Write the structure tokens for this entry.
Amino acid sequence: MIDKSKLPSRHVSVGPKSSPHRSYYYAMGLTEEEIRQPFVGVATCWNESAPCNISLSRQAQATKNGVKKNKGTPREFTTITVTDGIAMGHEGMKSSLVSREIIADSVEVAIRGHCYDGLVGIAGCDKSLPGLMMAMLRLNVPSIFLYGGSILPGKYKNKEVTVQDVFEAVGEYDAKKITEKELCDLEKVACPSAGSCGGQFTANTMACVAEAIGLALPGSSSTPAPYESRDEFAFDSGFSVMELIKKQIKPRDIVTRDSLVNAARVVACSGGSTNAALHLPALANEIGIKFDIFDVAKIFKETPYIVDLKPGGKFLAKDLYEIGGVPIILKSLLDGGFLNGDCLTVTGKTLEENLKNVKIDFQSQEIVYSTKNPISQTGGVVGLTGNLAPDGSIVKVAGTKSLKFKGRARCFDCEEDAFEAVSKRDYCEGDVIVIRYEGPKGGPGMREMLATTAAIYGQGMGDKVALITDGRFSGATRGLCIGHVSPEAAAKGPIALVQDGDIIEIDANEGLISLNVNKKELEERN
């Protein structure tokens, strides 16, 4: 039996003064022995909003069994999510990014308010992953993160498809490349199971981050959501959090600047979501570590692109699972000297120790490459600066044909206006589509632009135009799409001064984004 005299739950379960509290536990069917054990919060984002979350309740039950098996008392609770696939393309997207903070806040107050000694957080959709990890760092009680798993691919016309294909098919329909019936047939088969979006979009990117940063058990992120073998990882997560409580290994012992660098490496090498450039600094901020977009961009530039996953590549999360999952990526990076293997993880071992027995056969699979023979020398995500983005911006270049672009600005002050113009083909080859006043303040909420970018790609114009915004992009966005342009328009950033017809130059090789208007004229516009 663990001595509870120094654990948070002593306040609600030990001694005569806790008698009223214990009466509540008896009301819920707990035994005297269970009340004497450490209390572990099992927080999930289960809901019926989207397929990302519907399997989380099942996994929570397996997690609770693991806690019980190792002499702990699990207490399950849920929090909200906003699912980007459904919030996309309308006012609902303004609620997306802020949901990350609500998730972190709600889990924090639930754990603090009930004096739980540990936490297992189970998340499915994009913002719920960093939200739960932020709460873990804020609380600093022994914690383990568990991803709910990815969706299985759909099949349409003998081709594997994801929701990305449906978004792009809207553009194909607008361009009269497909019929309405074909669009409807595709939407019915694209998402055949529970789980988060199947490419290296934001959810799978942040799941990779959870393993790289040390907060998730090795291999726990890759198994698809419908597979019952996910329940083994859930059980192990519950069992292992009790070991962390015994040893008092806490999230701030695990997440350091070195482990944040490891996490950024995984994003870069896998062509991950640009949203990681928001979430990694947010995690760092919880523990007082300076790690901003420029730090992230520097790591992205130094890291080779070695994982061939959609949207920039060919394969899906299920394919990665079948060759060994995230540990294969980590092992390739470690062998190439791109990871700090001394970082502690939730196993109680270092990252290098966790990967000791992982073997990679580069000949038998085409998904993970050696760092000595990368897809490209620079990571799949890069940072850009210049007079149009003095405080930085970000672009995913994985799978992008040309990393340079020069064109005329076509300006829109909200996403809806841009999407309407794209739907009507009211833009030209060579345009740089500018969508502004969609930043954190200007939106407010910093919406994602997948509906617009996917429509452009579906119309066959993905490589013929560029798009910049002070908002952000879905992890499923592809093409030369620059987001997070800062300062944003609402904060009087230079993007607010761009006019139709201005020449904008983008050079992702050099990390530059420039507005070819002289300083004096910009001052007059201001």
Q: What stands out?
A: The longest helix spans residues 96-114.
